[in-house]
Amino acid sequence: LKFPSVVQEMTFSGNERTSGTVAVSPDWNLIGTLSSPVSSTSITSVPSDIISGSFFGYNRGYNIADTLEPYKGYWVNVTQDGILYLDATSSFNKQVARENYFDKLNSVTIEDAQGNKQTLYFSMLDKFANLSYNYELPPPPPTGIFDARFASNKFVEFSENGKFKKIPIQISSAEYPLTIYWEVKENLNIATLTVDDLKIDLRKNGNAHIPHQASHISLKFDGAKNLPKEFSL
After folding, report:
1. Has residue 95 got a pLDDT over 90?
2. What's the per-residue H, E or C state across the chain?
C-alpha cells in the first residue's frame, strides 16, 4: 500500500476465505492458504495426482506440514501445470490419528546455537525405501536463514542394497556450536557420521557437539557386514 502522507490507522473489512484455488507450475511453488486451517490430505488437484511429495512449512528449519495454517506460506512440488483446490469446510478436512512413516526411520537432527534445527532420515532396510515418493526438500532459503540437508537436496536417504554409500550433509547460515542428535532404530552397526577427521558410529541414541564450522560433514553407509546368523554351544 502506498499513501501520499502519513496514515495513523486503517480499517479493512471482508469475508473469511474458506475455499479457494491456487494455480501451480511444474517444480516448487510457494502458496498461500485460507482463513481457516486446511489438512494437507484434503487438498485435491486438476489434473489429479500432480502433487509430488509433502507440503513444507518453515519454522527454524523445514518441516512437513500436515496442516496448512492461516496466513502462512507453504512449499509444494507438482509435476505439471495445474490447479490446487483448498477447502477448509471439506468433510475430509479432519485431523486423523495416523502412524507416522518417518518415525520408523533412523534420524539425525542438526541444531545450532540459536535453536534452529533440521531432522534428516536414513535407513538400511529395503522395506522402507519407497522410491516412488519424492523426498526432496524445497529450495534453500536466502543467505542468513538456517538450513541443513543432504547434498542430494533430500531429507531422506537409503543405502543401495547394503552397498557402500557416502552422502555429504550441507549446512548453511548456522550459529555455532552445533549439536547433532541421532536416533538409530535398526539394529545394524553400519552407519557412520564423519565430521572432518572425526568419525562417529551411529548406534541407538546419542549426541555430539561441533564447536566450530566443519569443512566436511557426511553420513556414510559402510555396507552390509557378515554378521552371525546363528549361534550354538
Report:
1. no
2. CCCCCCCCCCCCCCCCCCEEEEEECCEEEEECCCCCCEEHHHCEEECCCCECCCCEEECCCEEECCEECCCCCEEEEECCCEEEEEECCCCCCCCCCCCCHHHHCEEEEEECCCCCEEEEEEECCHHHCCCCCCCECCCCCCCCCCEEEECCCECEEECCCCCCEEEEEEEECCCCCEEEEEECCCCCCCEEEEECCEEEECCCEEEEEECCCCCCEEEEECCCCCCCCCCCC
pLDDT-based confidence at residue 98 (cuts at 50, 70, 90):
very low
What is the rounded CA–CA span in Å between residue 119 and residue 60?
Answer: 11
Give me the percent of the chain exceeding a pLDDT of 70. 87
Grid coordinates given for 6: 502519513
CA–CA distance, 40 with 95 (Å, rounded to integer)? 10
pLDDT(215) > 90: no
* Sheet arrangement for strand 62-64: 27-31, 74-78, 56-58, 62-64
Q: What is the dihedral of CA 14, 17, 23, 25, to 10 degrees?
A: 110
